Structure formats: C-alpha cells, structure tokens
Amino acid sequence: MAEPVTPLVTKSDVAYDKVREKILSGEFPPGSVINQATLARSIGISTTPLREALRRLKAEGLVELGAHRDAKVTELRAEENRDLLEMRRSLDPLAASLAAQRRTGEDIAEIRASLEGLRAMPENPDYEHLLHHRRYHRAIYRASHNDLLVEALDGLWDKADRYRRFALEVDRGPEARAKKDEEHRMLAEAIIAGDSDGAAAVMTEHIDTSLATQATRRLSR
After folding, report:
1. Which residues contact 124 (CB under 8 A, 6 or more apart)?
2. In what order do the strands lie in the sheet with 63-65?
3. Which CATH superfamily, name and number, covers 78-220?
4. pTM for this model (two decimals)
5. Which residue of 9, 53, 54, 178 has the smallest Cβ count within 10 Å?
6. What is the pLDDT of residues 85-140, one digit of tens each?
C-alpha cells in the first residue's frame, strides 16, 4: 500500500496561520495596522509569502490591503455581524437537524470528545478557548454530511469569532455562562439521540442568545 502523501506546507501557509491566529486571538485588534516588513522578520520569512497570506486573509474579509507595504485589520461592523447572524440562524439549525438524522458512530464519538471539558468562553479568551469552541460546533457541522453546508458555516465561523471576542469585553455573568454550557450539553444529547427537531430548536436558542447577538446590540449603539 502506498504511503499517504503529506500535504506540502509553504511559507505562505505558515504566515497565513500565524497572522490569522493573531487576528482572531485579539493580538492584532480591529483597525490595527500591520507593518509587513516588521511582521515578516518576526515570522522569519520574506515579505513575498507574507503578502500571499495577507491576500488570502483579505479574501476572507479579515484584512484590508493598501497600495503600499502596510495592511490593516478589518474593523468590526454592525451590518456585517447582522448578516452573519441572519445566515447562522438559518444554517446552524439546519446543520444540527441533519446531524441528528445522519450522524455516524464516528460523528458521535467526535461530538462527545469535543464536548469534554468545553466551557462557555470567559472574558478575554485565549486562542485555545476559541479552537475548543470551534471544534465542538464543527463536529456537529460535519455530522450533517453536507459538504457545502460545512464549507459555508466554516467560513462564517472565522468572521464571527472576532465579534464573540468583542462581546466578551462586557462580562455576561455566571448564569449566562452556565446557560451556554447547558445548551452545549442539550444539543449534543439531541443529536446523539436522533432528535432532529429538538436539535434544531436548541441550536436556534443557542444562536439567538449568542455572543454575536450581544455584539450586534453594542455595535448598534
């Protein structure tokens, strides 16, 4: 049997991952200017692969590129967050419903594993908190076995993480965090039990009381 081919990781890929992490973790906050020469030196690459990485991030709406050597992290906008919420209110419950209908034993194992130790995000979450939260939701998306739906929700998640962090600048309190923990548990249980209507209902409630919803209210003031 042939050995599996290991995907080639380029310098541009490395730069993309590093800059994306800095943006989503809040190290590069919205509106901040990224000096390409300085950043390239800190990563240990030339500006050419960094520029390629920034073009990918621009396509994802995370940075803006000027005509010269600087880039700027995209500002948060109430309109964009509203658009993200409108799409997620439709697509997330659909994914949860399909997951309850189509989940396999492997999907159930991944959902359970991703739920282990998952807690509602605290103020100023680190990147690992964001990744754990994403792993749980992506396990649900993947259990839908609808590749186009998974791709669409993955793209929305990247943008939404910045609005979650913005909402967490105001402490939501222990009761609200406990409610989110309970929703995560109930959602997993409904999917594992094959309750498609119940899963969709829990997911709808999860979106309607989400950090992104709180961010919309703050941005609209």
Report:
1. 26, 165, 168
2. 33-35, 70-73, 63-65
3. GntR ligand-binding domain-like (1.20.120.530)
4. 0.84
5. 9
6. 999 999 999 999 999 999 999 999 999 999 999 998 887 788 888 889 999 999 99
